[in-house]
Design a protein that fits this description.
The protein is of the alpha+beta class and 67 residues long. It has two helices and three strands; from the N terminus they run E-E-E-H-H. 0% of the residues are buried.
Length: 67
């Protein structure tokens, strides 16, 4: 492996817009992110509601309803 080609790493504080922050190592000292594991719906289990535009969701459900 070649020496002297990798960037130097420093402790980095990553801050989310929800207020959560954690520390890791990176080539920059701080980062601001929009979404993290504390506020992402996949990790929190909160699913957003489907936005129904002109009845498209109901029309789809009626068309493919297996009852």
């Amino acid at each position: 492996m070649k020496t002297e080609i990798h960037p130097s790493t420093v402790e980095c504080t990553i801050t989310c817009v929800c207020g959560a922050s954690f520390t890791t190592r990176s080539s920059v000292a701080s980062m601001r992110i929009e979404i993290c594991s504390s506020c992402h719906p996949f990790y929190t289990g909160q699913q957003s509601k489907m936005i129904d535009t002109a009845g498209r969701v109901e029309r789809f459900r009626r068309r493919y309803d297996k009852s």
